[in-house]
Amino acid sequence: MRHPLPPTSPAFWRSPLRGTWLTSVLGVVLLAGITVLFVTGLASYAAYNPDLSPVNDQTPDKGVLGFYLFSWPTDPHWLYRLDQGVHVTLGITLIPILLAKLWSVVPRLFALPPARSLTHALERISLLLLVGGALFEFGTGVLNVQLDYVFPGSFYPLHFYGAWVFFAAFVAHAVLKTPAAVRTLRRRGEPDGDLASPLPDPPTVSRRGALRFAGGGSLLLFATTVGQNFDGLRRTALLAPHGGADPGTGPNGFQINKTAVYAGIRTADTHEDAWRLVVTGRAGTVRLGRPDLLRLPLHSAALPIACVEGWSTSDQWWRGVRLRDLAVLAGYDGDPPDLLVESLQRHGAFRKAALRANQVADPRSLLALYVNGEELSPDHGHPARVIVPAAPGVLNTKWVARLTFGDLR
């Protein structure tokens, strides 16, 4: 009677598909894809301007990990839409490739002895961190994209710190394994290696067939995700959020994440007779009702809404008062300063958000009163909301109650 082999035995793994060629091909694809994911993720974090004010900083203990942060620009106006759309869509698209790569290297996780040399020990450590980091980053990212984030703790610090751990392991693994992978691909063969089974089962599909299967899965996920960024394809985005429930039709019929009901906005707070915008700055405090704002010069700008979950809208036509004109009312006749925006909302994150001076100065940055020729709906921020080019959606504060120029405490 033959006893079952343990997973530590190379003969336990019987698939004839495993081998250095398949693993090398998958690894090269992930090398390019994960590098793009990491760069776009860092750029997305920079777009929040976390070093501008504590109200924007979701990772206050990041220390040296924030070395790269820079002042997020306002041009091109679709910059954040592109960056986060690529980040989320590519991340979901890579899932089948990642799973195939993890499957291809499973035998190495059980190999004995744990370390044959210092180089081998470093490789095993990097592999464990790589596998754990990949599952964590892709898992938390997918949960957040689905607007059903249930992982304990805040998404922002977990995903940010996890990304650095994962990418450090990824770089170490790439340095150790890329030269061998390139040699394997150049030889166009399948040299013997510790991934190949010594007792393979009969093949039912070729290695190229397995690659086509993984690639087909990626194409399917791409096709059911990318539509979240395009109005005509939005209903095809089955695996990505559409910005909440069906937003309806008409001028206000475009995506949202946070409804007025969810944010705790009461009609009594936003009624024209009750609502006042408080503008504070060098000249003191000014209180403006909606009629006061309508008497100021109004300007229009075509700008999208783009969210960290990856969805975005096409350009919407916004009309309202320029933020830089409100800075003049607050006593800043020259270049406007930074700005702290506060909302009426009672529930949810980002009740306050800080904007940089370059964002305030942009002529397209508005305290919007209208969208697409109609007053803002309650869910889109009535009676007034901020709209800024290239900024993440959460910084385009809705239901604005107060603007404080030059003081971001």
Automatic annotation (TrEMBL):
<feature type="transmembrane region" description="Helical">
    <location>
        <begin position="86"/>
        <end position="106"/>
    </location>
</feature>
<feature type="transmembrane region" description="Helical">
    <location>
        <begin position="21"/>
        <end position="48"/>
    </location>
</feature>
<keyword id="KW-0472">Membrane</keyword>
<feature type="transmembrane region" description="Helical">
    <location>
        <begin position="127"/>
        <end position="146"/>
    </location>
</feature>
<dbReference type="InterPro" id="IPR036374">
    <property type="entry name" value="OxRdtase_Mopterin-bd_sf"/>
</dbReference>
<dbReference type="Pfam" id="PF00174">
    <property type="entry name" value="Oxidored_molyb"/>
</dbReference>
<keyword id="KW-0812">Transmembrane</keyword>
<keyword id="KW-1133">Transmembrane helix</keyword>
<dbReference type="InterPro" id="IPR008335">
    <property type="entry name" value="Mopterin_OxRdtase_euk"/>
</dbReference>
<feature type="transmembrane region" description="Helical">
    <location>
        <begin position="158"/>
        <end position="176"/>
    </location>
</feature>
<feature type="domain" description="Oxidoreductase molybdopterin-binding">
    <location>
        <begin position="270"/>
        <end position="406"/>
    </location>
</feature>
<protein>
    <recommendedName>
        <fullName>Oxidoreductase molybdopterin-binding domain-containing protein</fullName>
    </recommendedName>
</protein>
<dbReference type="InterPro" id="IPR000572">
    <property type="entry name" value="OxRdtase_Mopterin-bd_dom"/>
</dbReference>
<dbReference type="GO" id="GO:0016491">
    <property type="term" value="F:oxidoreductase activity"/>
</dbReference>
